[in-house]
Amino acid sequence: MSFRTDLHCHSTCSDGSLTPEQLVDLAVAKDLQGLSITDHDTVASYPQIIDYAASKGIQMITGVEFSAHFNEKSVHILGYGFTPSDPGILDLCERHQERRKLRNLEILKKLNALDLPITEEELYAIPSHTIGRPHIALLMVQKGYVPDFKRAFNRFLGDGKKCFVPGPMISVEETLDVIKKAHGKAVIAHPHLYSNKKFVRKVLALGFDGMECNYACLPFELNAPWHTMANEFALIRTGGSDFHGDKKPGIPLGASSVGLDVFQQLSQ
Ligand code: AMP
Ligand code: ZN
Ligand code: FE
Ligand code: FE
Question: Most-buried pick from 2, 104, 158, 180 (CB within 10 A)?
Fold first, then answer.
């Protein structure tokens, strides 16, 4: 049986719908042998989840998906293989929590001004470590302000929409520095989501170890250009589903995966 690992998924520690333990159980059910939980701006599921996974026969590598900015544009950086107690990683997670707190309050103010009130208490009653726009979008659906999650983004919360607030930004450069100092590997996430290839090349020039070349349910033709670019930059070619459970329906855990060779390269 060949080793398959999904290197990108989200738990209830950020905006996924399954707990870290449920993700591991699902990995077993999907016949995966390896997994990395990559929550947005938090490593709260580690190190405890590694022992649980081992007890179920799943090998884990530590992971995180940091929100960063280059030229004021959003870039998601996956970090792998760091020590979860690394002070630099924990400090960066803490800075993100502070950044998000300020930004979330600004977003709530804008919604309030449009007569779409959500209180800080309501938002922070959600038991996630990282709270952001997806949590606000869900509350908007629950309160009947929008018919669905997608429309909360399309009308109000998406980049550039009327309740969008960029908030304080943390650069790609400092994020790479923290991951490197923690002896982790830095991987540019979902490269097809950025504006164009030129932008991706500029970001890669800042010094990445890998690129997420197999993404979610994308077909081979759409992933292929990223494999070519990754080879050009001598990058590790990673992959994962970006599974969020029922928060992103239609994308199963294991939708994209990689083999033991990639898992080992990220662990070195
Ligand atoms: P935040 O980290 O709080 O800025 O929220 C970013 C997350 O919101 C992303 O990781 C996506 O999961 C989600 N998101 C961003 N833009 C959209 C969109 N237009 N439609 C649906 N979800 C989105
Ligand atoms: Zn997410
Ligand atoms: Fe992302
Ligand atoms: Fe993600």
Answer: 104
